[in-house]
Amino acid sequence: MRVFKSLSIQGLFIRALTLMLALTIFSNPLGRCAVAQAQAPARVVISKIVHEILAQNHSFIGTLYYERISHVSSEVPGLVKKINVQAGDLVDKGALLVHLDTEILEKEILFHKNQIKLVGLDIDHKQINFKRMATLFKKSSISEQAYDDAKFFYQEAILKRFSAQITLEKLLIQKRKSVINAPFDGIVLEKNVDSGDWVHQGKQLFDIGSVNDLFVRVPMAETLLKFVFVGQSVPVIINAYDREMRGTIENLSPTADAKTKNIFLKIRIPMLTKVARNMSATVFIATGTKEKLAMIPRDALIRFQGKDFVFAIREKKAVRLAVHIVRFQGNRIGADDVHFTEGLPIVVDGNERLRPGQPVVIVDSQLERTKMGVQ
Predict the structure, then answer these.
(1) Residue 127 belongs to what H/E stretch?
(2) Residues 170, 129: Cα–Cα separation, whole Å
(3) Could you please report the per-residue DSSP string of 42-87?
(4) For 155-187, how does the pLDDT look when each residue is reduced to its tens digit (9 = 90+)?
(5) pLDDT band at residue 68 using 50, 70 and 90 as cut-offs
């Protein structure tokens, strides 16, 4: 029994000694270095720092809007027979939107077509009679009054046919207007009609925004206008989808905000299929003079405690460096930190699990990306 107790006490003593030794190692810088050195080298893909002369830019929140909006209305009254689109649908120019019922109209068209045929027969008859009267009048076989009456009835019949043709053309136009088409390539923003509705002439049926006239309206301080110009290409991010694209400054509003003195920029962006009016977009606009910036791929950026960092490689080990972003340039950012020297290797792949001081092995970028499945 005493033997078992002594063994148990001895085991507890060994465990306590081991724990004290571990605490001593990790509290000592040399001990931590030894542990770091024991870490397995991380395989990383790198890019090297290059410097470019660029202007600083800042982000501004803008609002999406369609500059060209058609309030599609009906030119003729009628009963809505068919609707082919709903709010949010994309439509091509000329696409059928609404079809009004034309059953009664088609009967009127048929009636007037028959009337024109009847008038045509009447014209033929009166033309023959007028020619006969003209021959007899030359021979002085009939009075001038009879000749004039025959001529009048013939000309009257011609005018009746002309009037009937005008009425028929009007009915055909009305039938054509009963089919309402999209005025341009666009998106249905609002729908104000449904099947079975009776629409009056001029009733607004749809609002359609042109997909080729999509803009971002961005407010910015009037003091920054000296850094922008019409035709300037700027990065735009659609916040709802975190989708980045290029926009073009097309114009600015001729009226400044009375209170803030902000100027509104009009920035044209490419066609988008799943966006709504008044959605937000982030636009990066130049706000300063040009300076020398270190260009860093966005893939190199990591967030730590709410701040931006990158891992650089020095003496085959990972070094965490802070990043002060002053410009966004496509898939790169520009930083003005002095520690980003020309040619400094920056980790762009494999940085998620890196730790400061961890040894690294720089692999062939293309080969390693293929192994990792990176496109």
Answers:
(1) helix 103-138
(2) 32
(3) EEEEEEE-EEEEEEEEEEEEEEEEES-EEEEE-SS-EEEEEE---T
(4) 999 999 999 999 999 999 999 999 999 999 999
(5) very high
Whole-angstrom distance, CA of residue 320 vs CA of residue 185: 51
Q: DSSP characters for 304-324?
A: ETTEEEEEEEETTEEEEEE--
What residue has token string 């730590």? 304
Q: Which two tokens stand for residue 83?
A: 């609707």
Residue 38, pLDDT > 60, answer no
Residue 369 confidence (pLDDT) above 50: no
CA distance 361 to 318: 10
The pLDDT tens digits for 108-130 are 999 989 999 999 999 999 999 98
Residue 299 Cα distances to 25, 179, 235, 334, angstroms? 35, 53, 17, 13
Q: Which domains does the chain show, CATH number per domain?
A: 38-65+213-372 (2.40.30.170), 70-209 (2.40.50.100)
Distance CA 48, CA 5 (A): 64
Q: Greatest CA separation found in the chain?
A: 164
Determine contact, residues 86/191, Cβ cutoff 8 Å.
yes
Supply 164's token pair: 């009937």
- The owner of tokens 């000592």 is 28
Return d(Cα 273, Cα 118) in angstroms, integer: 55
State how far the Cα of 44 lies from the Cα of 348, in Å rounded to an integer: 8
Structure-block tokens of residue 187: 């998106």
pLDDT value of position 295? 92
What is the residue type of 7?
L
Give percent helix, percent strand, percent coil of the chain, each to the nearest 5.
35, 40, 30
The tens digit of pLDDT for each residue in 194-224 reads 989 999 998 899 999 999 999 999 999 988 8
* CB environment 109-123: b (16+ within 10 A), e (fewer): beebeebbeebeebb
Structural tokens at position 227: 């850094």
